[in-house]
Amino acid sequence: MPRSSGRVDVHQHVLPPFYRDLLARAGIAGVGGRALPDWSTGAALDLMDLLGITTAVVSVSAPGTGFLSDPEEAAGLARRLNDFCASLPAGHPGRFGWFATLPAPGTAACAAEAERALDELGADGVVLLANNGGTYLGAEGQDALWRSLDERGATVLIHPAELPAPAVDGIPPFAADFLLDTTRAAYLLVRRGVVRRHPGIRFVLSHGGGFVPYASHRLAVTIAAEAGRSPLDVLDDFRSFYFDTALSSSPAALPSLLAFARPGHVLFGSDWPFAPAPAGQYFANGLKTGVAPKMLAAIDHANAEALFPRLGGAPVPAARTRLRHVVRRAGARVLFTLVQPGTD
Questions:
Q1: 27 Cβ contact list (under 8 Å, min separation 6)
Q2: Which residues contact 167 (CB under 8 A, 6 or more apart)?
Q3: What is the distance between the alpha carbons of residues 218 and 212, in angstroms, rounded to a whole number?
Q4: What distance in Å separates the CA atoms of residue 287 and residue 250, rounded to the nearest whole number?
Q5: Which residues make beta-bridge pairs with 202?
Q6: Whether 32 contacts 177, CB under 8 Å
Q7: pLDDT in tens, 79-91
């Protein structure tokens, strides 16, 4: 199947109506300090056309199933969410892939649902929250899940959740805490040897990896001192991660990410609908103004197509739609340039 030149968005979310209703019944009206956004398949496709996204690999964001205290209810919700996501590619060929939602990673139900979603439903990977009620990825009791995912060569999107501590007044969790949450999970996955013992798993860190690229050497020196390992070996483990660009392709963050990540390990992400369309345009245009054409093509689609080969031949939007959105994207690029601080 021929490759498409359109973007592949590996960080885009779904909010099915039944899931929103369950959150509302639990008193949850927002995530990370932001109100739950509106979502529909039609709105998702409009956003994708606006940003030149051919295919979105969608996932359920925080809180996932973590707001349910009953393990059976959490497992049932994960199954329902995965059945919903599995229906999207059939209804819109080539436009959607999906990461399966799993209940807390230390449970037998988690490994079982991962196997069902990957083997029977055709999921492109799984999404895991960095922490579930204060228990981080990399904690004890998760080995069955890691073994199952390793055997399948699974791709795992690590998405942040709210920190297991009260939010600081005046600082929305999505602005800073989410970055720390991702960094904590990455640290523990490296410190406790998960990434080294399970090389078949491709871990994708959300939002440019949180603080990982910027703080990687500091993290590596700390782990090396604790574990008696070479800092270079630890850095190699951190560089095994993939990174998406959601809300992270700015002139300040992008150079650090590109300097640290292995070739082929940076993937496009929009974070829609939690990041509204103007934010998606802003950061997408940060790539166009700060990355060489060959690297841009790799980030936009080639790197993701290597992870998800079945997504490579998706159809592109109709010519009239493309032209309309080219004009809108051009205006957004001008705005991006005007509001960026100088680099002289």
A1: none
A2: 33, 173, 177
A3: 9
A4: 8
A5: 155
A6: yes
A7: 999 999 999 999 9
